[in-house]
Amino acid sequence: MLPQLRGFCLCSISPLKNYGFLFNNIGVVYRRAGESDKALEYYQKALEIFQEIADDHGASLSLHNIGNVYLLKGEVKLALEYLQQALTIREKYSNPDELGMTLNDIGSVYGIKGELDLALDYFQKGLELREKTGSKFEIIQSLSGLAGIYQRKGNVEKAFKIYQRVLLLSREFENPLVRIDALSNFIGILLEKKKIKEAEIYLEELKEVFEKTKENNKLLETIYLFCQAMLLKAGKETSEKVSFQALFETIDRILTAQKIFRQLIEENLLHGLTVEAIFNLCELLMVELRTLGREDILIEITQLTDKLEAIGKEQSSFSLLAKTYLFQAHLKLLKGKEKESKELLKQAKAIAEEKGYEKLAGVITKEQQRLVGILPEMEVASAKLPLLERINKLQLEGLVQSMRQNRVEFFTGKP
Questions:
Q1: Are 399 and 286 in contact (CB under 8 A)?
Q2: How does pLDDT run across 2-33, given as a tens digit for each residue?
Q3: Most buried in the list 36, 238, 250, 275, measured by CB within 10 Å?
Q4: pTM for this one?
Q5: Torsion of CA 79, 84, 146, 268, to 10 degrees
Q6: Are 82 and 63 a contacting pair, CB within 8 Å?
Q7: For residues 389 and 396, what is the distance between their CA atoms, to the nearest angstrom?
Q8: Exposed, middle or buried by CB within 10 Å (0-12, 13-18, 19+), for 131?
Q9: Whole-number Å distance between alpha carbons of 389 and 234
Q10: How many CB atoms lie within 10 A of CB 158?
Q11: How far is residue 133's CA from residue 127's CA, in Å, rounded to a whole number?
Q12: What is the phi-psi region of residue 187: left when phi exceeds 0, alpha when psi lies from -120 to 50, beta otherwise?
């Protein structure tokens, strides 16, 4: 279909400006097909034409699209470079839709980099513009970005209020994906607030939405199952005294949550959810490891990090790769493999520095220094310090939690 489209356009359109839009549209087709390098090739061709004929509007479109592809590729330095160029042009012409889109994407870049105050600033500016256009879907995008940043900053109440507004807006859409995305985020923030009973109510609403939907049913069911597992993992609100029955119910919930997380990881329908499922399963397994100390638990955690590494490479998610190598380095040290641990830390730091994740690179550098400092205390290879003490010294559970909360950039290595 694409060669036919391209042939038709090349034969039918003569003005140079139209060729610019043609190449841009071909780039869009390739981007939607997941062929990011081909998309970049045609966006660059479009940019060259628009710059040659001094068409600032067309140039800003191409610059934004190139920046957006680099954002998807995890190349945050290049993404920021092109998006800032697009912003400079778009600020002159004040098209609120286009300007809001660029501000929102720059907010996303800074969010990925861990520069949360800058991310908030850009999301807020984008939201203010989008509020004027009346496009509710774009307003939801900006609000969701804002809420996610506030949640990562630990301002749960602020995030809760924004997600609440997103949920209300989503109910005006017939598209079930919009509603389910809003519901899943709202359930997540309720769980963070320990509002288990309320989360259960919204989980039922989410279930009703996906059960009524004929298309994308498996996709929607995946999101529902993830939220169900999160709810099981969180436990339940209770004032009951500790009893064997309560303990049995807790273990049963955790085992069911683990089973669902494993299913979602195996199916791997949504990479983002798969990564979150891995982080959550690792968190549960870390509790098991420190309690039972079994080798097979450590083996499963290690295998899960291998899956994270594979996803990071497949998706060109350099942030995920660097964080995974950081995690793997701690696991190697837990097993007494000091040389392999140092090599993984070196790889993690190199990726973070090369790709523009300065805050993450700073955390990795501090961890390199901290781990070197505790090596004599651990004496892993000779004295065989007990597993629980090694976990505590490495602060492994804190690292896993920071990965699950998307806060590795603020991990301190302290209890």
A1: no
A2: 443 444 344 444 478 888 999 999 999 988 88
A3: 275
A4: 0.88
A5: -10
A6: yes
A7: 11
A8: middle
A9: 26
A10: 15
A11: 10
A12: alpha
Contacts of 187 (CB under 8 A, 6+ apart): 199, 202, 203, 206, 227, 230, 231
For residue 33, give Cα distances in angstroms to 72, 234, 396: 13, 38, 39
Read off the tokens for 120: 């908030």
Q: Whose structure tokens read 């139209």?
A: 18
Residue with tokens 């042009």: 89
Instruction: State how far the Cα of 128 lies from the Cα of 139, in Å rounded to an integer.
Output: 9
- Beta-carbon contacts of residue 113 (< 8 Å; ≥ 6 apart): 76, 356, 357, 358, 359, 360
- For the stretch 109-122, pLDDT in tens is 999 999 999 999 99
Contacts of 373 (CB under 8 A, 6+ apart): none
Low-confidence winner among 36-40, 102-106, 234-238 (lowest mean pLDDT) = 234-238
Structure tokens at 44: 């660059």
Report the alpha-carbon distance of residue 186 to residue 180 in Å, rounded.
10
Please, what sign has the CA dihedral across residues 318, 324, 330, 332? negative
351, amino acid identity: I
Query: Phi and psi (nearest 5°) for 381?
Result: -70, -35
Q: Which of 7-11, 36-40, 243-247, 370-374 has the highest mean pLDDT?
A: 36-40
210, two tokens: 């996906």
